[in-house]
Design brief:
The chain is an all-alpha fold. Helices cover 75% and strands 0% of the residues. The protein contains four helices and no strands.
């Protein structure tokens, strides 16, 4: 099996790499960082440029959770729940991108 360097494959690999960087930033950094919002802007661009690649519900869940974490509307246990939702979104992005690259049937 050979890897072809198409625009879709390269953009998907970049998306996976950026997802790992944002995961590390979320573990290390403060919640008030603007970098994850930039990441979500790139996710929305990817979602619009390559239709059918990502599910709209997951993209909106990730965007809402990042916005809630960034602007600190919540506190206590609710922040932990929102962070778990965001990490579920990151898992979805990695799983979906790998399934698109490796042509998994599910």
């Amino acid at each position: 099996m050979s890897f072809t360097f198409t625009l879709f494959n390269v953009c998907t690999l970049v998306l996976i790499g950026l997802t790992f960087l944002v995961i590390v930033a979320r573990f290390r950094g403060l919640l008030e960082s603007n970098w994850p919002l930039g990441y979500y802007a790139l996710v929305i661009i990817y979602w619009q440029v390559f239709p059918g690649g990502l599910d709209a519900r997951w993209v909106f869940v990730g965007l809402v959770s990042a916005t809630l974490l960034r602007f600190e509307f919540l506190g206590g246990v609710i922040v932990t729940l929102v962070r778990v939702l965001e990490f579920c979104f990151f898992g979805y992005i990695i799983w979906r991108a790998l399934s698109l690259l490796l042509l998994w049937p599910w």
